[in-house]
Amino acid sequence: xxxxxxxxxxxxxxxxxxxxxxxxxxxxxAHAPINVMADHNHHAGEVMLSYxxxxxxxxGNRDGTHRQPIDSVLRSGTGDYMIAPTAMxxxxxxxxxxxxxxxxxxxxxxxxxxxNSMDHVTMTDGTFSTSASYLGDISVAAILPFxxxxxFSIGLSVPTGDQSLMDMTPMGRSILxxxxxxxxxxxxxxxxxxxxxxxxxxSLGAQVRGxxxxxxxxxxxxxxxxxxxxxxxARNPIPNLSASIRGxxxxxxxxxxxxxxxxxxxxxxxxPTVDPARRAGQRLDLAFxxxxxxxxGHRLALEYQWPVWQKLDGPQxxxxxxxxxxxxxxx
Length: 331
Ligand SMILES: [Cu+2]
Prior knowledge:
- The structure is a single chain.
- This protein is mainly beta.
- It contains two helices and 17 strands.
- A hairpin with a 2-residue loop joins β8 (166-169) and β9 (172-175).
- The longest helix has 18 residues, at 2-19.
- It starts with a helix and ends with a strand.
- Residues 40, 42, 48, 98 line the site of copper (II) ion.
């Protein structure tokens, strides 16, 4: 998280710079809050480049809607496991490109780079950390506007990521458990439906989006499907800055099948993160964001999202917050 804070002064400077130049008809809230994907389309011939940085912090265990102290996860206490995760950080850098060959369709491609790190405690009071980073799953999609302010998007995520990343653990160099992997290993269908309305000084939007796994991967399992429903309201206190508030409901399912490489660890209850039936969860998040638009086509945005409610098939690490910052340039 340190690098984020080092980048903050630069981001603040860029936002202040953008505010000094009039936006001449560019609406900052013509784009949704930065953590919403496939939220807008482009006009014929337009190209947009984007970069997003996302940092997610997870800390502490939860089962259902209740927090679980470490003692109730570990076998040395009242729990079942030899090892418990205590915290996890995910950092993602994502490059994106959008291109509209006509007003009727905008194509998008996204290329993520993901770094995961996880801290653990063992039943003998030992601690250890693992980390892994790799290219994630590249996705391509078509965004199709209809009926004025509505968008339908359909795409495919291809398994360019890795689901067998390794690192040193107390058991030697091992394949890391499910939440540390950066790829699904499957081709996934992505579908979304969204709508938005721009008024004189404010705007509203909503989107439903899902990721559906098409079959099993080479290791004999499929990650759970994911569905998110979100709605936001944005207001422009000054012409080229909008401030937004957003609600998000997210559902992700348990894994289908299991990677046989974890069979021994699963049978011996070594750690809950190798259990394909302890991956599911639901979250209700609240997010606050800022979009800044410059007449040159540059946009900067920031959004912070945190759960107000979550229910997990645990023990599983609970999410504490998600920070997303982004830059976009339309040409
Ligand atoms: Cu765009």
